Input
Amino acid sequence: MADLGDKTLLVSGGSRGIGLAIAVKAAADGANVALLAKTAEPHPKLEGTVYTAAEQIEAAGGQALPIVGDVRDDESVAGAVAATVERFGGIDVLVNNASAIDLSDAEQLAMKRYDLMQSINARATFLLSRECVPHLRQSSNAHVLTLSPPLDMNPKWFAHHLAYTMSKFGMSMVTLGMSARYREDGIAFNSLWPRTLIATAAVEFVVGGEAAMKRARTPAIMADAAHAILTTDSRAFTGNFCIDDEILLEHGADLSVYSAADEADLQLDLFVEERGG
Output
């Protein structure tokens, strides 16, 4: 496949950041994009709603379907899948982008935050993937892409933010299990994770403020890496835990175009090492 023209994507949490970047990149090919997100009204600190995101998708050349819903709610997810199929006739790609982050230590973390992360990260990825499978089976090149890290049992990833790690690795376990379960159906399940911080609201307001934003790459690197994955043969590329810059280096990309700072000053994200590390 050369592009995502006429393909239908369902993207969770795509009103801003990485999810929106992936959606707009697909829209430039002429894709149909359904966005499932809670943000119907403007946030006082965060830019964008599901409706402004839909406008950007259509401006880029795609067709958009904004869906206000909650990935934690079974009926909301089922309704979003049904609405996408009704509007566009099927689903070719699911992007599990919705995620919650709280890096608090085990003793300080409020249990409602624990429940939120498990529900949005691990549970919603499982639920959305399962709900889309019957429709993905009908696609000629079906992909599920989950924004989650490579599985790594090194205790350093668990010690200081155990709950978050559990929730993100839960997403990755969906990739691991469903890639094996649905391989014969031709449905690819892969994960994608950034090598470095990405300049998103989560990084600005949760991870490290303006200083972290200056040591990050732009969401475009994740959008371009996702596009490269989603245009592969789903029967040939599945069950992989991909890192954004590794995917793009395989395609001869110049990584410097994605950096907000000098490459040497970029801050590594969680769950990854330096290239070659």
